[in-house]
Amino acid sequence: MEKAIDKSESARGPRDDRGVISTRIIAAAREEFINQGVSGTTFRAIARRADVDPALVHYYFSSKEALLDAATAPPPEFLENAKAAISSPLPTRGQHIIKHVVRSWATPETGDILRATFLCANVDEKTREKLRASMSSSFIGATAERLPQGDRLVRAGLVSSQIIGLCWLRFIWKLEPLATMPESEVVGLLAPTLQKYLNGRL
Amino acid sequence: MEKAIDKSESARGPRDDRGVISTRIIAAAREEFINQGVSGTTFRAIARRADVDPALVHYYFSSKEALLDAATAPPPEFLENAKAAISSPLPTRGQHIIKHVVRSWATPETGDILRATFLCANVDEKTREKLRASMSSSFIGATAERLPQGDRLVRAGLVSSQIIGLCWLRFIWKLEPLATMPESEVVGLLAPTLQKYLNGRL
Question: Which of A37, A44, A50, B17 lies at a 20 to 30 A Cα distance from A162?
């Protein structure tokens, strides 16, 4: 986004002061990545979906990698809410984390960003690396500080595994009853497991 | 496989009594599905990878759907071991199930079949439906019989979520330390969670 705004202020391309065009291109790219995969996505198809000239997509984004990066960048609210959940009081932190995850996936644009990130991580090593790094650092920070670092790393992995599995079944594969269960029920069922992984006896 | 053997006995095509050619085509298809996705996989690329004429792929498999079905069919040993784990004594069933899953993914051909199934389920509704059905029926059968059906269904979902998340991180996204942790350690860490989901207090 920042890059797009910088560029639009130059004399080389159309004005896009509020980032309207680049936002539309990013959303179109995200849909293409979700539906066609990384290798199946083309600048032409993105342009068609965004209803802009392909040259304009190339003007804002120099490569498919740059588009993928923009399409899978988590929104600021998501990062703020994640930070709040991760630093909430330890005894109920598991509950705050799972609530944040389930809500984020159910939020229209954020949910699409997470879905695109998860699906692209299966086939694109750079996306996978970004995701691994952000999961590890977030969830290590969520574990009890008094524990040794190696133990915290294992716990972060366990937290990630339960969260990823839930997201996959509820939001991607849509396995019932998890897919349509009310948020409060999901939170109630998963929170004790996460809490155990964060600071309980393994 | 059965279909392929039936066909090879007819007068219409080459003999393939031991299923050597069809097995090679299925393995090639699986690799293509894993690497190119469902929409990116072509009969021509499968033929090239299997080192056979494209006409031979068409001879054995009438459609991409038939190939996908064959490429994601779990091997008999996997099904037998799954059945044994699911019907093992309830107090240690969680441990048997997670051990079976982790071993199966680490077994060369079975691991590829599971990987292909998981990845294709993201983009192909029929594969997803097959997977959902087999997960639910297996894991409902693993929960404590004395519980009400609705409760068992929820528990089967929880078991699935923890298993899917672990497989994703250990075998697909390769998040450390889960990715390279010894099998016995993974089993020890996950078994209590699965056991709780099978017959513990939620």
Answer: A37
